[in-house]
Write a structure and sequence with these properties.
With 332 residues, this protein is an alpha/beta fold. 34% of the residues lie in helices and 18% in strands. The protein is elongated, with a radius of gyration of 21 Å.
């Protein structure tokens, strides 16, 4: 249930109404916009008399919400959320480009790529230290050492960093990571999501391989219900019957999420297609459809990459893609 207040209501009256709701055993989510204040109620609201609330002189209207996700719901929070990632704002008209190698392989590699993507216009550096792989025989990442090298690249370039977490036990290692990524395979790892909800770190939540938008938003709700409302969603393609591309990029999800949630939505065309030459058109399409940013894999030598070289752009190609993305944004 949400209670929309009339413009100009005093802070004292808002606090009084919030206290009354809390005394009824409900959790309260207060959203104070520039022109409107909304009180979102979470819990059993069946005993609340909506008509009684609506006749209060400070109340404009009362609406019951049927969706199970509350904190992530745009009805609870009409204005776009803006997430601060190490000084870089994501959402609310702010466009972010996250770029870097799928996997950190050496100090020379990550530093070279980090400098190149920054020069090209990326404002967040990505790099995998812990790598979930389908085969147990594939390269699993440099783990702790990879994180150390990523932090060194952050120090050298000044770029905030994003990297994937696979286990809640690794959280202490992520103290200096600006944006913690939850990969597609862990989207419904609810114990991990609950632990991330206890942190104050921004979380990048990728869509699962075969998950609906509702399931995706419910995973975001797990994090937000724990107290951490700094969530960014990432569409990275879903599994369909098509086998030509690695996944099927669902750009309609970006438009749909604009209606359903206030959380920022970015797109990963690298994992979505799995083919380097298709990254550019999908990045441009994602920008045109209204994404809040892109996540693109860049490697200084894709042919010799230890992970996902086929979908990685060279720094030169990446720079050209960024320039075209900026032209699309200028048109919009």
């Amino acid at each position: 249930m949400i209670t929309v207040l009339r413009p100009g209501v005093s802070k004292e009256k808002v606090v009084s109404l919030v206290d009354w709701f809390e005394n009824q055993g409900l959790k309260v989510h207060l959203s104070e916009g520039e022109y409107q204040t909304i009180i979102g109620l979470i819990g059993d609201t069946s005993k609340i008399d909506a008509d009684m609330i609506e006749v209060l002189d400070i109340v404009e209207c009362v609406k019951r919400i049927s969706e199970p996700y509350k904190k992530a719901n745009r009805k609870f929070h009409p204005e776009d959320s803006i997430i601060d990632v190490g000084g870089v704002k994501v959402g609310g008209g702010n466009f972010s480009i996250m770029a870097g190698p799928c996997s950190i392989e050496s100090e020379e590699q990550i530093l070279e790529v980090a400098k190149a993507v920054k020069d090209a216009g990326a404002n967040i550096l990505r790099g995998g230290a812990f790598k979930p792989r389908t085969s147990p025989y594939d390269f699993q990442g440099m783990r702790d050492e990879g994180l150390r090298l990523l932090l060194k690249a952050k120090e050298v370039t000044g770029l905030p960093i994003v990297t994937e977490i696979m286990n809640a036990e690794h959280l202490p290692l992520f103290d200096d990571v600006d944006l913690i990524q939850v990969g597609a395979r862990n989207m419904q790892n609810f114990e991990l999501l609950k632990e991330l909800g206890k942190t104050n770190k921004p979380i990048l939540l990728k869509r699962g391989l075969a998950n609906t938008l509702k399931e995706w938003l419910m995973s975001a709700e797990y994090i937000m219900a724990g107290g951490n409302e700094n969530v960014i969603l990432c569409e990275r393609g879903i599994r369909t019957y098509e086998t030509y591309t690695r996944n099927t990029l669902d750009l309609s999800a970006v438009a749909a999420l604009r209606e359903l949630t206030h959380l920022p939505v970015i797109v990963d065309p690298s994992h979505a297609t799995g083919i380097a030459r298709m990254v550019e058109p999908m990045a441009l399409a994602a920008t045109a459809v209204g994404a809040d940013g892109l996540m693109i894999e860049v490697h200084n030598n894709p042919e010799k990459a230890l992970c996902d070289g086929a979908q990685s752009l060279t720094p030169d190609v990446f720079a050209k893609v960024v320039a075209k993305v900026e032209k699309i944004r200028d048109v919009l």
